[in-house]
Amino acid sequence: MENWDSWQWQLRQQIRTVEALRQYVAVSEEEAAGIREAAKEFGWGISPYYASLMDPEDPNCPLRRQAIPSLAELHDSVGLIDPLGEVNHSPVPGLIHLYPDRVAFTVSNRCAMYCRHCIRKRMVNRKEARYNWRDGVEYIRRTPQIRDVLLTGGDPLLLPDHTLEQILKALREIEHVEIIRIGTRTVCTLPQRITPELVGMLEKYHPIWLNTQFNHPKELTPQAQVAIERLLRAGIPVGNQSVLLKGVNDNVDTMKALVQKLVRFRVRPYYLYQCDVLRGTEHFRTPIETGLNIINSLQGFTSGLAVPTFIVDSPAGKIPLHPDRLVERGTDYIVIRSFEGKIVKLPNPPNQFLAGNGSKMVENNKMMSIG
Questions:
Q1: Alpha-carbon distance 330 to 297, whole Å?
Q2: Separation in Å, CA 294 to CA 24, 44, 212, 249, 257
Q3: Which of 259, 316, 246 is nearest to 287 (CA)?
Q4: How many other C-beta atoms lie within 10 A of the C-beta of residue 208?
Q5: In the chain, which segments carry CATH 3.20.20.70?
Q6: How far apart are CA 311 and CA 320, in angstroms?
Q7: How far is the CA of 280 from the CAs of 67, 117, 368, in angstroms?
Q8: If residue 296 lies in a helix (H) or strand (E), which one and from where to where?
Q9: Which has the least CB within 10 A, 2, 15, 234, 297?
């Protein structure tokens, strides 16, 4: 298709009707009903590029589950419209100041694809959510403890280059702003957006960091790899923040394939988020134990570089959870469990290890003593 590689064309052709979606997949009756009913409450739209990655015959395709509205979004007994309480930490419209030295700055309410699990369903693709980004810059300017600014949305890379540059330039003129981060899913859903012109502009405002969101190995395409390489060549590190989603990536095999492919693409698996208690996402949420089991099954069985931190987000901030490997704590020792389930006893405090006489290992649940 002549204009396929144009990100502007992709946005103009954003899929918003059942008829348009049928050009890419055999829309099931349930999906059609979901579009008809759920889309009344939660906006939707899919880039042609992302639609082309979907399995055309399988309604349970993990990419379709992320992108196509479902009737399940209307049946949620506990979900909240703002589960993180972001509005309570918003000193000016569009800016969230929860942590002491950093802010999230929502500079756009548009996305290349409106993910069904989006934490900001309440505001994306809505006219009333638009605001003047200069108000946010002014707040940052007069708040000297802010050293780290995350540009988010919506998707900040849906802004035209010149508008994004205006924001970056204004932030770089603030002496206490050390780091600028960009949170974008375009690397996954619209890799055409990562143009040479864009990265050439971004690298003028270093240090710039970028985090994206790949949730399934099928999303890591050659086109995505080109976008990633452009960012890396411009000196922009790329991290990934996956969301744990039932029916998408809630098993060890899928997650291991995802993180290993990310590392091959030179993307650091940064976070694995527990799906938030967000209205319209009950069908995506998994027990906490699912995420802990995935992390437990990655640790030691693939390189540490490929193991993300499991995060539960909350109104009090991000809370990392880790598999419990501490079995016992004594007055001068600890007992811990290895990735293979071996039990190890170590002196505590650790400096006693230096005076030890060696180590002894045993298999399975027998004690391994060191000291």
A1: 27
A2: 32, 30, 20, 10, 12
A3: 246
A4: 21
A5: 86-321
A6: 4
A7: 13, 8, 48
A8: helix 288-298
A9: 2
Q: Which backbone phi and psi does 187 adopt, to 5 degrees? A: -55, -30
Classify residue 174 as left (phi > 0), alpha (psi -120 to 50) or beta.
beta
How many CB atoms lie under 10 A from the CB of residue 216?
Answer: 21
DSSP for residue 74 = G
Band of residue 364 on the pLDDT scale cut at 50, 70, 90: very low
Tokens 């390189």 sit on residue: 303
Tens of pLDDT, residue by residue over 168-204, are 999 999 999 999 999 999 999 999 999 999 999 999 9
Q: What percent of the chain is modeled with pLDDT above 90?
A: 71
Length of the chain: 371
Query: ∠344-347-349 over CA atoms, to 5°?
Result: 130
Which pLDDT score is estimated for 357?
A: 47
Tokens of 166: 């205006």
2: its two tokens? 């002549």
Phi-psi label, residue 299: left if phi above 0, alpha if psi -120 to 50, beta otherwise: beta
* Residue 343 near residue 368, CB atoms below 8 Å: yes
Q: What is the DSSP string of 154-208?
A: S-GGGS-HHHHHHHHHHHHTSTT--EEEEE-SHHHH-GGG--HHHHHHHGGG-SE
CATH number of this structure's domain 86-321: 3.20.20.70
